[in-house]
Amino acid sequence: MTDKSSSRSWHQRAESLAFRTQAFIEGRYVDAASGETFDCINPADGRSLAAVASCDAPDVEAAVASARRAFDDGRWSRTPPVARKRVLRRFAELLREHRDELALTETLDMGKPISDSLAVDIPGAARCIEWYAEAIDKVYDEVAPTSHTTLATITREPVGVVGAIVPWNFPLLMASWKLGPALATGNSVVLKPSEKSPLTALRVAELAVEAGLPPGVLNVVPGFGHTAGEALALHMDVDCIAFTGSTRIGKRMLEYSGRSNMKRVWLECGGKSPNIVFADVADLERAAAAAAAGIFYNQGEMCSAASRLVVHESVREAMLEKIVAVGRQMAPGDPLDPSTRLGALVDRGQLETVTGYIEAGRSDGATLRLGGSRAREETGGFYVEPTVFDGVRMDMRIAQEEIFGPVLSVISFRDEEEAVRIANGVMYGLVSAVWTRDITIAHRVARAIRAGTVYVNCYDADDITVPFGGFKQSGNGRDKSLHALDKYTELKTTWIDLSA
């Protein structure tokens, strides 16, 4: 049996891995109409992995037409929920059966450690698809409490053609958060993966058809945001856009809706999350470990990253020392080495963005306590050291703007009122955390923070059963949980007069 636990083994497997690189439309792989391709880059060494079809408006037109035909003829939309459940459960099983292939593809494409792809991304995607499969035949419609002379029913119907635009930081997992509820409720989907990490989306489209999903129900169009993404968001026959990405592009999605058919737009956008540590924190060691994981996990390329440590001045230095100690043990390494905890940033552009913010932190007067430099430059890859800035003020760019890298900003506070003011003092409102022994403080601060999730004495806890999404310019709507079904269904009232 091949030893899958060694770096050498994963490198050997990578050499023989074949990628799907064409668009997936009407159940088959096709070249882009233009014949154009773009290079998909390995973040670990800066080399090209594959030439991927560069889709544009004609390809999106074909994909949407395929999805519309599939929806209108009922090949999936009118399939009974129990039958949809069987197909989606088989889809989840296939994701698990191909776990190693998909995890390796994810790591090569995006730069995250192979151990994370194996333990988190692929199992999480399978769990999401399976959960919505199991949920869909257990969601009931309603009868309204009208008078005895009427019968008013409220039923859910699929919205139609869903355009799903997903990011590069968790390529398959974020796609599953859209595909699970959208497919379970009977919609057809056109998926536009990020041009920085399109490979797992192209592979799983094939697995979905193998599981029994009818051709045309799931189409995948790789390409750039300003071409394929814009064409999808502007398309008059797309009923819904489900988008995860930056706030800047999320705002464009709203504009595209207004310029086209007023399609509903669901946004999960950026974050600048406050991790608030009070003086009475029960376990400083645990809080520090969670703070470090919250900003360094996935190279800090998370909208929910704990990028602002808002810590009481009396425990600031002790907390900082522990976080720095953890960070020193997380030097960037080869993503295909199972012992690596911090991989490569997704591409050169992101590397330049992160190092630009590090330079801004220095020039604005913050104190660099850890890291701050590019790492492993000799590999040709895009690595940055875990970085910690102390003495950060709220008027600094590194306190206000989403960096999307392993860069922590430490801001101290004196009292509860100041902590809440700092927490709410950004345009985002995705997640947050409160560390305290005092349950009254925990409840009071949790209510005062404007964020979609407030963790108490933990960070980045996760389960498919709870909703995920934000307030303010972090977006609208919710991924995960039964609440996600609201994004992909229309409510229809049928009023029957019984008086005749």
Description:
By secondary structure, the protein is an alpha/beta fold. Helices cover 38% and strands 20% of the residues. The chain is built from 15 helices and 23 strands. It has helices spanning 7-15, 57-72, 81-97, 99-110, 114-135, 171-184, 199-211, 225-234, 247-259, 284-296, 316-328, 348-363, 397-400, 416-423, 439-448; strands spanning 23-25, 28-30, 37-41, 48-53, 142-143, 150-158, 161-165, 188-192, 218-220, 240-244, 264-268, 274-277, 308-312, 367-370, 374-375, 383-384, 387-390, 407-413, 428-429, 431-435, 453-456, 471-472, 489-497. The strands form seven sheets. A seven-stranded mixed beta sheet has the order 14-17-18-13-12-20-21, sandwiched between helices. A five-stranded parallel beta sheet has the order 9-8-7-10-11, with helices on both faces. A three-stranded antiparallel beta sheet has the order 5-6-23, with no helix packed on it. Strand 17 (387-390), helix 13 and strand 18 form a beta-alpha-beta unit. Helix 5 packs parallel to helix 6 (171-184). The longest helix has 22 residues, at 114-135. The protein starts with 6 loop residues before the first helix and ends with a strand.
